[in-house]
Amino acid sequence: MTSHASHAQTPLLCPCGSGSLYSACCEPLILNRQSANTAEQLMRSRYSAYCLGHYLYIQQTYVPDLQASHPVAALAEFGDAVSFIGLRILADTQAADQVHFIASYLQQDRLEQLEEVSSFEQLDGRWYYRNGKLIAHPAVKIGRNDNCPCGSGIKFKKCQHQPLSQ
């Protein structure tokens, strides 16, 4: 697994954007100390796991019949190629087993937005991710002298989210 700067140390605040400390938010789920109480909580923990490189957790939170079709190496290949910079929960889908969100990430010099209405299942009292309906967004090219879309206020060329290949 390739290590990004954002993977190197555990942040004080949870990457999921809850405003809570990581140790009190997604970490207990990712370390299997507790289970998610809601589909949204599981989705947030999966996002945090991508941010921090916990790809085995992501695989294990797919419904059991889909876990083998999502190998850890493939999850890591995607996760290590991007830098996640934000998560927004858009709306309550009125269904306890769905979450509508946008995960923003940088891939090379492009800002990408993954918008999805995710479907989850609860099996034996535990939440799992089943699948999602994607909503397409065009990628936005970021100039080296543009401010980084992560919100740091730093020019993209100097931000921690600068692609490793530049």
TrEMBL record:
Any Pfam family: SEC-C
YchJ-like middle NTF2-like domain location: 38-132
Superkingdom per UniProt: Bacteria
Stored InterPro entries: NTF2-like_dom_sf (IPR032710), SEC_C_motif (IPR004027), YchJ-like_M (IPR048469)
PANTHER family cross-referenced by the UniProt entry: ADENYLATE CYCLASE-ASSOCIATED CAP C-TERMINAL DOMAIN-CONTAINING PROTEIN, UPF0225 PROTEIN SCO1677
Name of the protein in its database record: YchJ family protein
Organism: Rheinheimera marina
